[in-house]
Structure formats: structure tokens, C-alpha cells
């Protein structure tokens, strides 16, 4: 399906607004009009346009003020300023601030269409490039998600490293796949690996490959994922869980564009775009020394932060209906939808497990319903079942770690040296663990020995 470019036209002169709107529609653009800056920003909340055309001189909020607010809300959205009082100094000033183009009234038709075509080409939104299949797996009507998808489309053409951050279950791999499909690497492999799911030696072998005899059990040569993804994209999920020793090797690959398999003396050139993801706070990880700062800046050329599902509640009914259709086709075609009360309950839920939890709830409802329309009571039952369900291995391990650390700190009354000895860790590693779980040893000391109290001993 071809994408029809949407132009937001802003002018307080209603006659010119109508005339320009007709001119743009004659070129088959979709046109949204606004008679003030405030009205334009309200339109922006409902639907993100591909280009904004705004008059410079308007009451209350002029074109440049509108431009600055647009850039704050939707960075990268091209804005073309129109004015009957154009001057070279105004044009230079506007373009230096980031305005895409500056046109003087009366507007020349060819000049106007030329500026719009250039803006669309720059953002990849042109009608000739309008295949939307790249984002087909991401179901949304959220303005925040639409803004992220627009950034993802622009980033995809730049071929830079991208870090996708966000809570577990928010769709980070789907976003990575979308970036790959929107790039010139789309016809090459997309390879994914979870960096927290494998022991260190196995992860090293999977990423970089190994030579025959490199370690016990290496009975043949093994091609690593960097080679398997050559020409395409490599998705490193949960990059924050990668051991420090492997972070050094990954950094070298990114710097040299060469990979040396484990046990080999020969480096192999690789052409791979790296997209990484994490739910961890990497700034905190850099502070506690568990993540390398130089690697962070290599991976985080562009950061896309996916919001939790509770911040895009308007997407819940849309996603639920889409997931139900998929589940019904696979398991029970007689199921047709949710009752209005059931949808309201879904939309009002907190979704700590994000989209992944919603998938599980919908699957349960489809499996257990005896009627074509899923009632509220069944959704409520599925939500309770999800709350009592087994956590993922990563979540369970993190929960155990925190409980264990709290226990040894209580036993030792906040004495880090003793606690580290019990845990079988050196003090540096133990402090890193405490930082990862936001635990402060001083909080476990007896009241009389805390810094704020007088030590009477």
C-alpha cells in the first residue's frame, strides 16, 4: 500500500488556507488545516504529518515559535515557513534554527512542490517510498509510538548503530526488525541473540565463532552470528547483561569491522549493522563499572525508548483485537471479539509485563472462552492467573539476587566486607551487585551506628 503524504497547513488567513489546501490536494497530498499555532499542535497530537507548512506572522504564536514547539515534541519533522514579508536575513535566521525551507508569498507552485518533495525525500516519507510493510508488526495509534516509528524510519536509512531501550515485553525486538526492514539491508539476514541467556564462553562462540579445537567439545569450525548476519543486521538483545570481557571484544569488532573467531589467529571482515536493546539503566551500569562507557557510545548513536504499555493505553483495545484475531485463527475461529466491559477492563489494567503480558492474557481468554464474545469475568480471571504465573528466568534470577542481597545485608547489619565474604564475592563485585539492585548498605546498619547518629561505642 502506497503512503499518501500528509501535509499540515497552518495560516490565520482562511482564504489563503483554502487556496493552498486546494493546490496541495490537486497534487494528491492529504491536507490537514489549522488556523493557529495552538490548533496545529492539537492536530499534531491526533496524527503526525509528514511535513508542516506554516505562515510566519500569526497572532499569539508565530511560525518560528510553532516550529520550536514542533521540534520539541516531534524532532526531525520538517517545517516549511511561508511569509509575505520575506527577507534574506529572516530566511538565513530561520534555516539556521533548523527550519527546512523558507518561501516568500505569493508562493510559486513549482517552488512549493519542490520544497515539499525535498522534505519528503529527506525523511523517507515520499509517496514513491511509501510502502508501510516495514512497520506492519507494530500495531499502534499512540502519538508517542508514531513519533518513534518516524524516527526509526529516518534512522534506518542512516545505517548507524541504534540502542532500543524500554521495559521487558514492550516490543524492542519488533522495533529492531522494523528498522532492519526499512533499511537498505532488508534483503539480507536479520539475526537476533539474547546476551543474557547464554554462559560467557557459549555467548562468545555464538557471536564471534570458533576454530576447531578452540575448547573442549569444539570438534569443528563454527561460524559466528556476525558472519551469519553479514550484509544485514545483528540484534543484541539485553546487551546490558553481556560480561565485561566480551564487551571488550565486541567493541573491537565495531571499531575494526573485523571478527576473530575463538581460537583463531585470522580476522574476518564483516559488514553488519548492530541494533541492541536493554531494559537496564546503562547509565547506572556505567557508573558501577559493569558496562563500558566506550562501548555504550558506540552502540548508542541513536536511542529509541519504547514506552511501557500503560503509557499508551489507547493502544490496548487495538492490540487486544489484533491479538484475538490471530489467536482465534490458530485455535478457535468461533471467537469473534471482547465484550465492551472486557475491553474496558483490559484498557484500565496496569500491564507490568507490557505487550508480552497482553499476548498471554488474550491467548488464555481465547483458549478458555465458551462463547464467541469474551466476557469481562474471563478477562479478570486471566489477569489474576497472569499475576500468579511463573516469571521469566531473567526476572526470577533478578528477584532471587535482590532477596539474597537483602538477606546477607540484614545478617551482617550492613557490613559490606562480611556480606561479600558470605556471598563469595570481592567487595568491588559486591558493590556492583548492590548498585544494580538499588540497595544501600547503610540502610541495614543498626540505628545507633548510622552516620546521622552518635556512635556511643
Automatic annotation (TrEMBL):
Q: Which CDD domains match?
A: AAA (cd00009)
Which Gene Ontology MF annotations are present?
Answer: ATP binding; DNA binding
> What PROSITE patterns does the annotation carry?
RESPONSE_REGULATORY (PS50110), SIGMA54_INTERACT_2 (PS00676), SIGMA54_INTERACT_3 (PS00688), SIGMA54_INTERACT_4 (PS50045)
* InterPro entries xref list: AAA+_ATPase, AAA_lid_NorR, CheY-like_superfamily, Homeodomain-like_sf, P-loop_NTPase, Sig_transdc_resp-reg_receiver, Sigma_54_int, Sigma_54_int_dom_ATP-bd_2
Supply the alphabetized keyword list: ATP-binding, DNA-binding, Nucleotide-binding, Phosphoprotein, Transcription, Transcription regulation, Two-component regulatory system
The chain residues annotated with the modification 4-aspartylphosphate are 55
Does the keyword section mention Transcription regulation? Answer: yes
Domain Sigma-54 factor interaction residues, every copy? 138-367
Q: Pfam families given for it?
A: AAA_lid_14, Response_reg, Sigma54_activat
Domain (Response regulatory): give its ranges. Answer: 6-120
Record GO biological process: phosphorelay signal transduction system; regulation of DNA-templated transcription
**Protein's UniProt name:** Two-component system response regulator GlrR
Lineage summary: Bacteria, Pseudomonadati, Pseudomonadota, Gammaproteobacteria, Oceanospirillales
Gene name, please? glrR
Amino acid at each position: 500500500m502506497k503512503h499518501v503524504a500528509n501535509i499540515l497547513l497552518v495560516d490565520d488567513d482562511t482564504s489563503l488556507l483554502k487556496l493552498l489546501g486546494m493546490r496541495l490536494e490537486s497534487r494528491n497530498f492529504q491536507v490537514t488545516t489549522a488556523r493557529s499555532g495552538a490548533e496545529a499542535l492539537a492536530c499534531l497530537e491526533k496524527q503526525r504529518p509528514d511535513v508542516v507548512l506554516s505562515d510566519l506572522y500569526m497572532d499569539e504564536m508565530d511560525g518560528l515559535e510553532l516550529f520550536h514547539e514542533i521540534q520539541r515534541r516531534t524532532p526531525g519533522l520538517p517545517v516549511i515557513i511561508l511569509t509575505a514579508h520575506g527577507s534574506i536575513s529572516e530566511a538565513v535566521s530561520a534555516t539556521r534554527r533548523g527550519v527546512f525551507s523558507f518561501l516568500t508569498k505569493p508562493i510559486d507552485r513549482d517552488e512549493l512542490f519542490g520544497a515539499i518533495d525535498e522534505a519528503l525525500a529527506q525523511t523517507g516519507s515520499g509517496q514513491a517510498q511509501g510502502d508501510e510493510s516495514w512497520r506492519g508488526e507494530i500495531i499502534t495509534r499512540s502519538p508517542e509510538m508514531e513519533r518513534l516509528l518516524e524516527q526509526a524510519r529516518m534512522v534506518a536509512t542512516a545505517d548507524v548503530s541504534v540502542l532500543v531501550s524500554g521495559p521487558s515485553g514492550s516490543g524492542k525486538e519488533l522495533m529492531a526488525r522494523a528498522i532492519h526492514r526499512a533499511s537498505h539491508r532488508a534483503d539480507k539476514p536479520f539475526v537476533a541473540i539474547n546476551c543474557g541467556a547464554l554462559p560467557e564462553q557459549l555467548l562468545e562462540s555464538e557471536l564471534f565463532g570458533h576454530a576447531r579445537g578452540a575448547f573442549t567439545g569444539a570438534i569443528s569450525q563454527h561460524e559466528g552470528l556476525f558472519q551469519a548476519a553479514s550484509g544485514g543486521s545483528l540484534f543484541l538483545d539485553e546487551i546490558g547483561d553481556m560480561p565485561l570481557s566480551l564487551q571488550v571484544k565486541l567493541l573491537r569488532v565495531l571499531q575494526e569491522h573485523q571478527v576473530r573467531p575463538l581460537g583463531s589467529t585470522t580476522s574476518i571482515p564483516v559488514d553488519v549493522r548492530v541494533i541492541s536493546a536493554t531494559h537496564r539503566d546503562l547509565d547506572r551500569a556505567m557508573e558501577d563499572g559493569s558496562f563500558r562507557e566506550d562501548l555504550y557510545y558506540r552502540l548508542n548513536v541513536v536511542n529509541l525508548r519504547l514506552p511501557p504499555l500503560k503509557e499508551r493505553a489507547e493502544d490496548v483495545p487495538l492490540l487486544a483485537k489484533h491479538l484475538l484475531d490471530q489467536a482465534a485463527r490458530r485455535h478457535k475461529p468461533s471467537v469473534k471479539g471482547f465484550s465492551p466491559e472486557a475491553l474496558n477492563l483490559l484498557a484500565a489494567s496496569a500491564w507490568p509485563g507490557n505487550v508480552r503480558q497482553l499476548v498471554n492474557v488474550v491467548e488464555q481468554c481465547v483458549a478458555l472462552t465458551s462463547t464467541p464474545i469474551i466476557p469481562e469475568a474471563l478477562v479478570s480471571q486471566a489477569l489474576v492467573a497472569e499475576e500468579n504465573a511463573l516469571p521469566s528466568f531473567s526476572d526470577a534470577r533478578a528477584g532471587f539476587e535482590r532477596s539474597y542481597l537483602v538477606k546477607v545485608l540484614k545478617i551482617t547489619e550492613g557490613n559490606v566486607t562480611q556480606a561479600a565474604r558470605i556471598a563469595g564475592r570481592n567487595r568491588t563485585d559486591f558493590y556492583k551487585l548492590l548498585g544494580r539492585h538499588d540497595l544501600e548498605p547503610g540502610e541495614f546498619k543498626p540505628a545507633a551506628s548510622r552516620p546521622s547518629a552518635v556512635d556511643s561505642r
